[in-house]
């Protein structure tokens, strides 16, 4: 389940700022203040595009500023492509890419990065394996060489694999004791059922299966230039960037059959009632939501704005009702996550046991209000400013812009989406928001997942149906 919440902190900070503006607006302002100036045109970077003879797509964004270059390599085939018996094995594979290659060990890779002022990380999400790296622009050739070496020639040394397995097993034990993680895992199954998007977490079988040979085989099946994108952003000439891309990645050849695309995820699902027992818990961790649509769907932007009004900002309906008015939860919120093959909407609310049932009643009321209560002019304007503000602030950061472009490609969106996103969000109307409410936020269609103590909350749950114990 790709949550895409890397910038949640930024969203909260900006939401708090907007909340302060909203609070200040209750005080009468001087009558002689000048009107707001017209919105300025949104700056859109020029994205040079080329496809290498081997099929690798390359996007380059020359950019003035700090003498730095950021690189992203995205290869289709993330956890959704992993075998059901060994879910999320690609996460372990990705994490070991920089732990040794045919010509370097993990120490020499770390030293090479340090010498060029570099940073490197690799991961696997639902739809892709991602490498993100950066360095001083004067060392762009060395950076591209290092990324190519780790991406194309990883050796998966036995000692590094053993260490990664031990660390993964410890992390799994920690995760399994975390009620938030337990709730999200159960919600993934409620939203996606048997679809691979429900299997994005490692388990003991995956960790046990992670041998050097298995990881090498998985890598070779996934890494193909015709299913990959290279993004280069920073203080670098486009022609020079394309030259470096050809030098380092031009010899990359595809072999064997390409993986099939992930089947479309369900857009609707019969609502479920799941409980993860946590004896002695003093609070309930609630997830309330359903499957939705992928990022390439026409509803993507209207649904993003609608979710912002519902629970995506500090002045949202969920926050104002459940936190400010009722005092049930310190940080209730909702999100819409969109992937390549599907998506989901979900509210996250952690409350004390005594108000679990009351919170579910409030959520039902708030969700239904998205269809029955049109967004006010203030709500709509605030949501648009929050959506646009976060987007613009985020993509001023060079590494974030690089990641955004890579995510677009993975999600099936064109690079031009970068320049149209805010403008399209600003076109969303109150009628469209209400339509999203009818389509995605009806309370009767939402699954309810709770991690908590059944003895303490069972009586409060009875009005919402029979809850089944979730067993992964």
Comma- or semicolon-separated keywords:
MPP/UQCRC_Complex; 17 helices; Metalloenz_LuxS/M16; alpha+beta; 44% helix; Peptidase M16; 2 domains; signal; Cytochrome Bc1 Complex, Chain A, domain 1
Strand and helix layout:
Elements: H1 8-24, E1 48-51, E2 57-62, E3 68-76, H2 89-95, H3 106-115, E4 119-124, E5 128-136, H4 140-152, H5 158-176, H6 179-192, H7 204-209, H8 212-222, E6 228-234, H9 238-249, E7 273-277, E8 283-291, H10 300-312, H11 317-325, E9 333-338, E10 343-352, H12 356-372, H13 377-394, H14 398-410, H15 417-426, H16 430-440, E11 447-452, H17 454-461, E12 468-469
Parallel strand pairs: 2-6, 7-11, 7-12
Antiparallel strand pairs: 1-2, 3-5, 3-6, 4-5, 8-10, 8-11, 9-10
Domain Peptidase M16 N-terminal: 67-201
Domain Peptidase M16 C-terminal: 210-385
Signal peptide: 1-24
Mean pLDDT: 93
Q: Helix count, per DSSP? A: 17
Stretches where pLDDT falls below 50 for ≥5 residues? 1-26
Widest sheet: strand order? 1-2-6-3-5-4
The major sheet is characterized as: 6 strands, mixed
Estimate the global geometry from the Cα principal axes.
globular
CATH superfamily of the largest domain: Metalloenzyme, LuxS/M16 peptidase-like
Number of domains: 2
**What is the β-strand count?**
12
Helix content: 40-55%
- CATH topology type of the largest domain: Cytochrome Bc1 Complex, Chain A, domain 1
Distance between the termini: 15 Å
Beta percentage is 15-25%
Radius of gyration: 24 Å
CATH level-1 class of the largest domain: Alpha Beta
Order of helices and strands: HEEEHHEEHHHHHEHEEHHEEHHHHHEHE
Based on helices, strands and strand pairing, what is the structural class? alpha+beta
Organism: Rhodanobacter caeni
Domain Peptidase M16 C-terminal: 210-385
Pfam family, one: Peptidase_M16
Signal peptide: 1-24
């Amino acid at each position: 389940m790709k949550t895409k919440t890397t910038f949640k902190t930024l969203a909260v900070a900006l939401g708090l700022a907007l909340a302060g503006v909203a609070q200040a607006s209750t005080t009468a302002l001087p009558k002689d203040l000048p009107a707001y100036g017209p919105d300025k045109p949104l700056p859109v970077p020029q994205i040079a595009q080329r496809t290498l003879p081997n099929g690798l797509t390359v996007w380059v964004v020359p950019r003035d500023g700090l003498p730095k270059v950021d690189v992203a390599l995205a290869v289709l085939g993330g956890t959704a492509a992993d075998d059901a018996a060994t879910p999320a094995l690609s996460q372990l594979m990705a994490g070991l890419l920089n732990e040794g290659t045919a010509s370097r060990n993990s120490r020499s890779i770390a030293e090479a990065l340090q010498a060029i002022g570099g940073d490197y990380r690799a991961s696997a999400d639902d739809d892709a394996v991602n490498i993100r790296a950066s360095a001083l622009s004067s060392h762009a050739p060395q950076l591209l060489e290092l990324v190519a070496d780790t991406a194309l020639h990883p050796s998966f040394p036995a000692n590094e694999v053993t260490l990664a397995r031990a660390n993964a097993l410890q992390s799994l034990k920690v995760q399994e004791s975390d009620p938030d993680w337990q709730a999200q895992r159960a919600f993934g199954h409620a939203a996606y059922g048997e679809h691979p998007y429900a299997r994005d977490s490692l388990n003991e079988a995956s960790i046990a299966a992670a041998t050097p040979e298995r990881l090498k085989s998985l890598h070779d099946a996934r890494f193909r230039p015709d299913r990959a994108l290279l993004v280069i952003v920073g203080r670098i000439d486009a022609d020079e960037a394309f030259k470096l891309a050809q030098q380092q990645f031009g010899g990359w050849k595809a072999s064997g059959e390409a993986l099939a695309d992930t089947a479309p995820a369900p857009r609707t699902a019969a609502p479920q009632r799941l409980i993860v027992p946590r004896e002695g818990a003093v609070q309930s961790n609630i997830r309330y939501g359903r499957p939705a649509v992928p990022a390439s769907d026409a509803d993507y932007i209207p649904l993003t704005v609608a979710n912002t009004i519902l629970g995506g900002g500090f002045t949202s309906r969920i926050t104002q009702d459940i936190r400010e008015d009722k005092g049930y939860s310190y940080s209730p919120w909702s999100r819409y996550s969109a992937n390549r093959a599907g998506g989901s909407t979900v509210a996250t609310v952690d409350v004390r046991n005594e108000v679990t049932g009351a919170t579910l009643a409030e959520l039902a009321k708030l969700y239904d209000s998205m269809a029955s209560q049109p967004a006010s002019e203030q709500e709509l304007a605030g949501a648009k400013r929050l959506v646009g503000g976060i987007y613009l602030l985020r993509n001023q950061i060079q590494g974030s812009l690089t990641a955004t472009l890579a995510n677009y490609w993975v999600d099936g969106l064109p690079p031009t989406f970068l320049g149209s996103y805010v403008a399209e969000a600003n076109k969303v109307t109150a009628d469209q928001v209400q339509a999203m409410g009818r389509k995605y936020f009806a309370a009767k269609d939402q699954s309810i997942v709770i991690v908590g103590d059944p003895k303490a909350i069972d009586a409060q749950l009875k009005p919402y149906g029979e809850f089944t114990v979730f067993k992964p």
